[in-house]
Amino acid sequence: MSEKSYQICSKTIMDTSDPEITFDANGVCNYVNAYNQSVKAELENQEQKRKNLESLLFKIKKDGQKKEYDCIIGLSGGVDSCYLAYLVKHQFGLRPLAIHVDGGWNSELAVKNVEHIVKKLGIDLHTFVVDWSEMKDIQVAFFKAAVANQDVPQDHAFFAALNKEASKRGIKYILTGSNKATEYILPDSWGYNAMDSRHIKSIHRKFGKKKIKNFPIVSFLKYYIYYPFVKGIRVIKPLNYIDYVKANAMNILEKDLGWRYYGGKHYESRFTKFFQSYYLPTKFGFDKRRAHLSSLIVSGQITREAAVNEIAKPLYDPIELQEDKEYVLKKLGILPDEWDQIMKLPNKTFKNYPSNYNKYIFLRKLKDMFLPRLSG
User: Fold this and answer.
1) DSSP readout, 325-354?
2) Which residues are paired to 128 by β-bridges?
């Protein structure tokens, strides 16, 4: 990219490192305008959010009256999922079963955070351990495929496990920490849909070596049709129904539950930290902090000046980077020379491999037309 073509949003810190970004006449990017047009009013409508939340909680409690648990929550050890657990038990009065998916990359802090949360809140925990040999083979295949979103295997296993457990137990509600206040902005080119099983299988078929038997692959029809419409499982994002301020949530978690911060968004996974802070910016020029910080700007949680100062900080301490790089490569069985070759491969997008992208776009349009936005 030439210096002449570079442009940064006048309201956020999203810039032309996103190949799909556009700007209006005032230098404001498409993400800000989309947020203001379709999300801002909804997130700021306190009365409507309160009514929607009360209605949801009433239905969850009613549908779960004769069951051991009335909902399932995903618990990673990160701030969003841990704060969700706090709300669900401390304020909402629900009876959740927490599901933690161990994909082999938990940081020590993440493990301790999960332990503290379930113990202090009195929540039952079920841990699903992904077959490491298969996870490893799929992740190596994704690196060889030279695509941007290397978190697809971890994320797919996470949501597949939640739905499988809900289906097995007859639980109708899965509550997640995903939210629009801190995660609204994320370019498609930076983070493709993790629930595209065809995408995963096509990459593994081409680059993998091991037959997949135990990894929790969930098909397009099962995830988008069978679970929601046949089993009646609904995914709810409660943080969209409250004034979710990340800094306040962290203070509560640290003060009341012994939770500790791990240094960055999704850094509770050592793999995710390495992938987001080294692989993506080095190979693709994508710094996901721009999206994370810009989401906080549009939702009024930080100023643009604060975001500019934050993005100027180094992504990695050099010593820590060397340690993490050695750890990740050794765990995946990738030799240094092989890794150098991977980093030199021509960059690809998910569109270079078979996927269910067109089906996903069609379903998203239907969802926007017929379902309340805040619940999606």
Assistant:
1) HHHHHHHHT--HHHHHHHHHSPP--GGGS-
2) 101
> At 216, which CATH number?
3.40.50.620
Tokens, residue 58? 């009433």
In a domain, 348, yes or no: yes
User: Residue 128: CB partners within 8 Å, gap ≥ 6?
Assistant: 99, 100, 101, 102, 157, 161, 165, 216
Asked if 105 and 270 touch (Cβ cutoff 8 Å), the reply is yes
Q: What is the torsional sign of CA 19, 22, 27, 31?
A: negative
For 149, phi and psi rounded to 5 degrees?
-80, 90
Q: What is the pTM of this model?
A: 0.91
DSSP run (H or E) holding 102: strand 96-102
Q: 53: which residues sit within 8 A by CB, 6+ positions away?
A: 238, 241, 242
Q: What is the extent of the structural domain holding 333?
A: 45-375
Q: pLDDT by residue (tens digit) across 67-104?
A: 999 999 999 998 999 999 999 999 999 999 999 999 99
The side-by-side arrangement of strands in the sheet containing 234-236 is 124-129, 96-102, 71-74, 173-175, 234-236
**Three-state SS for 154?**
helix
